[in-house]
Design brief:
The complex is a heterodimer.
Chain A: H1 7-19, E1 30-31, E2 42-43, H2 47-54, H3 58-89, H4 93-104, H5 111-121, H6 128-135, H7 150-175, H8 179-187, H9 192-215, H10 224-230, H11 236-239, H12 242-251, H13 256-284
Antiparallel strand pairs in A: 1-2
Chain B: H1 2-37, H2 41-51, H3 60-63, E1 76-84, H4 100-109, E2 111-120, H5 121-134, E3 140-144, H6 145-154, H7 161-167, H8 170-177, H9 182-187, E4 188-189, E5 192-193, E6 196-197, E7 208-212, H10 213-219, H11 227-239, H12 267-272, E8 290-292, E9 298-300, H13 305-319, H14 332-340, E10 346-349, H15 361-364, E11 370-373, E12 385-386, E13 394-398, H16 407-421, E14 429-432, E15 435-438, H17 452-466, H18 474-487, H19 494-500, H20 505-514, E16 518-519, H21 529-551, H22 558-580
Parallel strand pairs in B: 1-2, 12-16
Antiparallel strand pairs in B: 3-13, 4-5, 6-13, 7-10, 7-11, 8-9, 14-15
Helix pairs in contact in B: 1-2, 13-21, 17-18, 17-20, 18-19, 21-22
The chains are: A mainly alpha, B mainly alpha.
Keywords (chain B): Signal
Protein name (chain B): Extracellular solute-binding protein
Chain lengths: ~290, ~575
């Protein structure tokens, strides 16, 4: 019992910082004027939700958000998994460590810096990527200004930046595999490929499923930092995500009611998805919170 | 047993300690929240009170000036917040916190100006929005027209009518009243003066054409007389190797994603076709141009057929390679670099272009010289240059809780005196090791005397002809000297020469005014509710439409579709509100 007391600080923090601010959702139903405060602003009911529903871009933005987020989830699953399996086969320790560190590095760079670099690297006139494409004999691609390419640029650059981090997680899972399983496999005549197929992969499947299902809750978070730093008006149609959209039409022009309404909408969807993903993780990955 | 007990006691103590730290940490941050949530004045006053503990809360008259002049003794402290321009280079030893202005304010007026925070100019508007939401306002701050509106409605800013009458100097008053009282009227709501206009009353944003003269000579063309000439020059600059380096690496016309801007904007290009659209990509979406039709009703300038004509010409220029192919992803700083690195030879822009970005090119790039030309028309109708700065776009507002609502006026009096009354160059520009640094931008408050610059240009040129400088005031004399220095061979004074000499920026802009060639919106009111609610999303639609038409990813006729869509998705409401406002001229 006394040890349970240690929970109290945590609970207080959660109450104060997670449950307390929930009062703020009333802003979604008000014509909120900051200086009048939450309780004195005019009540407008579902007005903001109707307004968002009737905005021509809303559906487009929602579609972009889900598409980009899902692509990022898939890329963010496959790339680190493959890299981890490949790195696991590398025998030279210093080589493995060096690779691990190098691919891990971009994770610590902010998107502001990454965007500055990408703007130059991907430029059709002077960028190295396009010079390579031209050298291969293809047409140059305006990656950041072409609305067909832009979502994929987002996905690829995000994966490039973050896959080192995921690799570390999977490598850790691989290290935890019982060596005697490999010994048994060798005795049965399994080569490296068979060992990977029948020992390593089955062993890390639970953590893979777990990470993937938990990521479902983030399907409406397509990465504000990244998109905000890379996008421009000519790719709004495919690159604009909920967060950037709300920022532009809501926060930057002081329409707090609208911004909060979108936030509330996002939270509601996320709640459903997180519940669903927990259920899936519970069923398939034996994941238990309680 | 004993051990267990001790353990329990220890963990109880530990958790108590944890609780206490979290609770105290939270209660601190909670105080700040209270101010915004329940709007209790006590929380906020106690916070702002921290800053003013040194100053006695006595009435201003007891310890300070009772009119436009005087000094606080003991000194008072007033708080404000600042936007810091990323491009600005500061003179050695000068900062936004301590500079010649703040030192003067402290020594002459007994007012210490304290910056509660400073933030990059691009982030300023958002940070102000957050400040407004938190309810923790500084004594005075610079807000845009829309935020001004919100603050007036909310009633958290002070009524300045009385302090203006009592503390504003004659010079300050005349700066408010110039050009038809437009600035004073805009800042007055329901008969009360609610803010100090930071700008407005000027038409310094009217566009001019800037062209590399050396490039013109290289391709064998004359300065433009019509818009067709402009296009001919743009194409020649693209295809005829104007920099004579043997490579096809130049562009005809400067452009970046802002579309409308004082540097590499398209405002002047559109004006050439008698079109007056205005809706910058990074703008508020609420500063719109309206045209009065023959029936007395207003129309929105951006949906007129002339806009479509001009867009067609731009799309053609893009197709022929005269526009930077990546213009839609670069900002003004990048497009400035293209110009200074000799890739672009023509731009439309307002008065400041000689001072940025092309200010050092005459000195640094041998043979380069930018010429300045007035806008040209596409036909025999005279061209009108649009100006959107007649109405103030920014105001200084004073918090209701400020103990010294008169302080900003005293600061402004000094500002006007140093820059317009008895001009003191040290407050405008200082030169350290041959490099010029602007000082005027460091002042925590600013204003302006409408029409000041064109007047100065006329006076300087008259003095140059007659050789008699006695009629010049101190400010004009210093510009006169800068021009004289340039003529004596000082290449660093190139920008001053372009600004003040005959045929320079202010002469040409003065001619626009004298010849009634300035277009201003027919609507002179503040943003309407629908503009505020739908402006940003309508702006995005317009920017998308223009960018994709110019880049050729959509046909020119998608303009009509967009125009119809604009009316349907809120445009008609905006027009109705504007027509019903009674603020149409």
């Amino acid at each position: 019992m006394p040890l349970h007391l240690m929970l109290v600080p945590g609970i207080i923090v959660v109450l104060l910082f997670s449950y307390g601010p929930m009062v703020g959702v009333v802003i979604a139903f008000e014509n909120f004027i900051p200086v009048k405060g939450m309780f004195r602003s005019e009540w407008v009911g579902l007005e903001h939700f109707k307004y968002i529903y009737h905005l021509s871009e809303t559906r487009e933005v929602l579609r972009n958000t889900v598409f980009i987020a899902l692509m990022k989830m898939i890329g963010g699953l496959v790339a680190p998994l493959v890299t981890a399996l490949l790195l696991n086969e590398v025998m030279k320790k210093y080589y493995k460590r060096a690779i691990q560190t190098i691919i891990y590095m971009p994770h610590f760079m902010s998107w502001v810096i990454m965007a500055g670099i990408l703007l130059d690297v991907l430029s059709p006139t002077s960028g190295i990527v396009n010079q390579f494409i031209a050298w291969l004999g293809f047409d140059k691609v305006f990656f950041l200004g072409n609305d067909k390419w832009f979502p994929y640029v987002l996905v690829v650059t995000d994966v490039l930046k973050e896959f080192g981090f995921g690799t570390v997680v999977y490598l850790a899972a691989i290290t935890a595999v019982n060596p005697s399983l490999y010994e048994a496999a060798v005795l049965d005549g399994a080569n490296r490929w068979k060992q990977t197929l029948h020992v390593t992969i089955p062993a890390i499947i639970p953590i893979t499923i777990l990470l993937t299902t938990l990521a479902l809750g983030n399907v409406l978070n397509a990465g504000f930092d990244q998109v905000f730093n890379l996008y421009n008006p000519s790719v709004y149609s495919t690159g604009d995500i909920l967060d950037t959209y709300v920022y532009r039409i809501g926060l930057a022009s002081a329409q707090y009611g609208v911004a909060t309404a979108v936030g509330l909408f996002k939270s509601a969807i996320s709640l459903v998805l997180i519940s669903l993903s927990y259920f899936l993780a519970y069923r398939f990955a034996n994941y238990r919170i309680f | 047993m004993v051990l267990k007990k001790a353990n329990a006691k220890r963990s109880a103590m530990l958790s108590l300690l944890l609780i206490m730290t979290t609770v105290t940490a939270c209660s601190n941050s909670n105080n700040g929240n209270n101010g915004s949530k329940s709007d209790t004045p006590s929380a906020s006053t106690s916070e702002s009170g921290d800053n003013k503990n040194e100053s006695p809360p006595a009435s201003p008259a007891a310890s300070g000036p009772s009119g436009p002049e005087g000094k606080y003794d003991p000194p008072i402290e007033v708080t404000t917040v600042r936007a810091v321009s990323a491009a600005a280079e500061l003179a050695p030893g000068e900062t936004f916190d301590e500079n010649i202005w703040t030192k003067t304010f402290e020594s002459d007026l007994g007012i210490k100006v304290k910056n509660l925070w400073k933030v990059n100019a691009e982030q300023y508007q958002n940070k102000i929005a957050v400040t407004m939401a938190s309810g923790d306002m500084p004594d005075f701050m610079n807000v845009d027209a829309q935020q001004f509106q919100i603050l007036v409605e909310a009633g958290t800013i002070a009524d300045l009518t009385d302090v203006y009458a009592k503390y504003a100097s004659d010079l300050t008053k005349s700066s408010f009243e110039g050009s038809n009282d437009l600035r004073l009227k805009a800042a007055t709501v329901n008969g009360k003066l609610m803010g100090i206009p930071a700008d407005g009353g000027e038409s310094a944003d009217t566009h001019l054409i800037y062209i590399r003269k050396d490039w013109l000579a290289n391709v064998g063309l004359q300065p433009p007389k019509t818009m067709d000439d402009v296009i001919k020059i743009a194409l020649a600059f693209t295809k005829n190797d104007p920099d004579k380096n043997g490579k096809n690496d130049t562009y005809g016309l400067s452009l970046d994603y802002n579309l409308f801007n004082g540097w590499s904007g398209l405002d002047g290009f559109f004006n050439g076709y008698h079109a007056y659209p205005f809706n910058p990509t990074k703008g508020t979406g609420t500063n719109l141009n309206f045209i009065k039709g023959s029936d007395g009703k207003v129309q929105w300038a951006d949906v007129q057929p002339e806009v479509k004509t001009a867009l067609g010409k731009l799309a053609d220029l893009f197709k022929q390679g005269a526009l930077y192919p990546e213009f839609s992803v670069i900002d003004g700083i990048k497009s400035g670099e293209l110009a200074t690195s000799g890739k672009v030879g023509m731009t439309f822009g307002s008065f400041f272009v000689p001072t940025w970005p092309i200010n050092n090119m005459y000195k640094d790039v041998p043979g380069s010289d930018w010429g300045i030309y007035p806008l040209v028309s596409s036909d025999d109708q005279p061209v009108l240059a649009q100006s959107t700065t007649g109405l103030p776009s920014h105001y200084f507002v004073v918090s209701k809780k400020s103990e010294h609502p008169e302080a900003p006026f005293l600061l402004l009096n000094t500002y006007m005196e140093k820059l317009y009354g008895h001009f003191d160059k040290n407050y405008h520009t200082v030169t350290v090791d041959g490099k010029d640094y602007g000082e005027f931008g460091l002042a925590p408050i600013n204003g302006g005397l409408p029409g000041n610059n064109p007047r100065a240009a006329v006076a300087i040129q008259a003095a140059k002809k007659s050789g008699d400088t006695s009629a010049l005031n101190d400010e004009q004399k210093s510009y006169f000297d800068q021009v004289a220095k340039f003529e004596a061979g000082d290449a660093t004074m190139w920008a001053a020469n372009k600004l003040w000499s005959e045929g320079g920026v202010f002469s040409l802009q003065g001619q626009y005014i004298d010849n009634h060639q300035v277009f201003t919106s027919a609507y002179v009111g503040n943003p309407t509710p629908t503009m505020v609610a739908k402006g940003p999303s309508l702006r995005d639609e317009e920017v998308k439409m223009m960018t994709s038409i110019i880049m050729g990813s959509k046909p020119l006729d998608s303009f009509d579709e967009w125009a119809a869509n604009w009316l349907a998705s809120g445009g008609q409401d905006i027009l109705n509100e504007v027509n019903a406002s009674g603020m149409v001229q």
